[in-house]
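Hi, can you check this record?
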Amino acid sequence: MGRLSVRAAAARVAIVLCAAAISVHASKPRLRLARDDASGRLTVLVDGREALVFQYGPALDIAHYWPMRSPSGKNMLVEKTEPYPHHRSFWFADTVRPAAGERDLSFYNALYSGVKTPTGDYVPPYRERVRFKSFSRLEASRGRADIEADLVWESDGRPVLDERRSLVVRALGQGEYLLDLTWTLTASQGDVAFVSDDVHYAWPYLRLDPLWSGEKGGKITSDSGATGQEATNMKPALWIDTSNSVDGVTEGVAVFQWPDGQTHRWLTREYGTFGPRRPDDRSGKPFTLQQGGSIVQRVGVLVHKGDVSTGRVRERYEEYVKGGRK
């Protein structure tokens, strides 16, 4: 082979290797965080596109997540809706009593503790609110982001519970992603009784945009294979998925309950909301968190292409459990 041919062959090999390197690089999902304290928004971007936004502005009754976008970019959540305007998209709250003889504090209904306007809306100040304090960790590298936030559940400006919220986001490629969320509530100020009923709460609570609801053709499926509200509401489950075809594209969201060795029953509604409850021994019955004590819950939230089957929800739950929190 002549010198020119050797050079040409080497050049072709270099081009192929370069193209392969670009292909591998391009196939790796990327995560980025965009913080805007002025508007109280922390945006998680997957491959340059908005995926999830943490809303923490000072005028809110409850810090929450909205929007949360499907792999094709559609918003899957509704931030405020009728007839339940207190629902906050992707959130969790509860009803507690800070000490014997004090009134019940419904953070679940924090919106209604605000000032009611002539138009029927509620605005600050709110007697009860879940207020963001600060971020203790904000990191993003390649396909993972770590977000740790400190919040306080307060009534009339008085702290009732401290909250540490840890969120790991993993980009899975093709617009899919997994949220691994752990939150810890601590009774730093004194004993706190939890007095929520067995109906009006889930930890966390996802309120879907109506386009994803069962009323619009969406399908609720649990790990047992049960489908629909009647077969899944108040039933034990390891995970529950809701999927639908919107504008000809099938996508969904699944919530994974971390296996803590306890039974968790679920709230499900065909109008478009679902989430796990606390373990049975602390769900729908009063219990007291002693001063200095904490309560912890962990879930995964998988935003996926396809339905419960083609989205490989069961397989991904198993991967989630095996992967721990590495």
Summary: Residues 3-27 form the longest helix (25 residues). The CA atoms of residues 33 and 44 lie 5 Å apart. The two ends are 52 Å apart (CA to CA). The chain is about 10% helix and 45% strand.
